[in-house]
């Protein structure tokens, strides 16, 4: 993220690192998004070429640019959240809490490492296959696009390919970095709420003479964690809405290309196309599931706060103290959520709906394809 200029640092006109992000955005926009979008004008009417344009690079790159710009513009807010994470780690004194935070950090590290390896594998696989096909396809760009110069001559062709490869690497890493970073933040919130729940369940013992003081600390911490999650929700819900809609369309057009490979007479590249379709679809679905998983976990952990207040030994408290727990239970019913543009919450149900919608669109595209062939 530092290499791409999107690590959450303070922004300033005199700080050179503030403008480093323009380099990857420029490569992605000038070598893929702008040329492919312009090329749509020239290929309009050819459904196969339009599907290839949208599925291979245009939509993915546009999403990556949007995510990079959105994350960079909210760098200060992300830095505040990172400082809260650091403070939480310093304040953790109980061995159980330290062990839980370490486990969550390890899970986040594995998710990040696995996603980076997979995204670079997808980009590397696509570039390798297209390079091996150059002797058969001729001097064809990796991403079919319109450039205001002749890309078929030396050295313009080679320089354009280098630019597209660089842009593809920026797309893969920026797309992944934002998703895994937000996943790390949300898993941290879930872990902190879990620790608070255990504190709340042990709050009502008979020997606790500082009930109100301890309860006030739990409420303040819980309120801070909710603001933490709401900050992520407010800053990124619009970006997530566009990403979810685009990913759904991408799955449809990728599936259409796979169907085309199965029904076309030319089966020479069937294995190659199906292999790339498989790894690319897996990559996209895993990133969608990451958001659905952490969204479901955030809501579940927040709702469990109400059960923790109910399951504690509230019968040892005075009526006025027990009423304080009732207020916490009511507040916990309004658990924090991560949404796509405020339209829907990320959870397992949404993931199932995305799969169902994708399959519905796929059936329509398949009908269109078989009709055209007939």
UniProtKB/TrEMBL annotation:
It comes from the Eukaryota. GO terms for molecular function: odorant binding; olfactory receptor activity. It is a multi-pass membrane protein. This is Odorant receptor. Its main location: membrane. One of its GO terms (biological process) is signal transduction. InterPro entries: 7tm6_olfct_rcpt.
């Amino acid at each position: 993220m530092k290499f791409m200029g999107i690590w959450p640092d303070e922004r300033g006109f005199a700080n050179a690192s503030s403008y480093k992000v323009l380099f990857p955005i420029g490569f992605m926009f000038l070598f893929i998004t702008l040329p492919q979008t312009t090329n749509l004008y020239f290929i309009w009417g050819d459904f196969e070429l339009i599907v290839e344009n949208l599925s291979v690079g245009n939509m993915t790159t546009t999403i990556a640019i949007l995510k990079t710009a959105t994350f960079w513009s909210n760098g200060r807010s992300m830095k505040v959240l990172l400082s809260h994470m650091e403070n939480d780690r310093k304040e953790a004194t109980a061995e159980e809490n330290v062990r839980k935070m370490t486990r969550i950090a390890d899970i986040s590290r594995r998710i990040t490492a696995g996603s980076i390896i997979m995204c670079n594998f997808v980009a590397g696989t696509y570039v390798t296959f297209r390079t091996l096909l150059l002797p058969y396809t001729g001097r064809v760009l990796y991403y079919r696009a319109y450039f205001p110069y002749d890309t078929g001559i030396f050295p313009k062709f080679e320089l354009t390919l280098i630019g597209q490869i660089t842009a593809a690497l920026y797309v893969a890493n920026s797309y992944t970095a934002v998703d895994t970073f937000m996943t790390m933040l949300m898993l941290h919130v879930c872990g902190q709420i879990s620790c608070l729940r255990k504190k709340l369940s042990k709050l009502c013992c008979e020997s606790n003479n500082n009930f109100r003081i301890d309860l006030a600390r739990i409420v303040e911490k819980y309120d801070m964690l909710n603001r933490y999650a709401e900050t992520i929700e407010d800053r990124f819900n619009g970006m997530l809405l566009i990403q979810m809609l685009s990913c759904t369309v991408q799955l449809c057009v990728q599936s259409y290309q796979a169907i085309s490979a199965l029904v076309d007479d030319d089966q020479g590249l069937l294995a190659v196309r199906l292999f790339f379709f498989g790894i690319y679809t897996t990559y996209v679905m895993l990133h969608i599931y990451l958001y659905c998983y952490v969204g479901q976990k955030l809501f579940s952990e927040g709702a469990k706060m109400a059960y923790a207040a109910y399951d504690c030994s509230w019968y040892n408290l005075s009526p006025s103290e027990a009423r304080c727990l009732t207020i916490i239970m009511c507040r916990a019913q309004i658990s924090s959520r991560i949404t796509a543009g405020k339209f829907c919450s990320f959870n397992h149900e949404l993931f199932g709906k995305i799969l169902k919608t994708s399959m519905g669109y796929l059936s329509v595209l398949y009908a269109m394809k078989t009709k055209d062939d007939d």
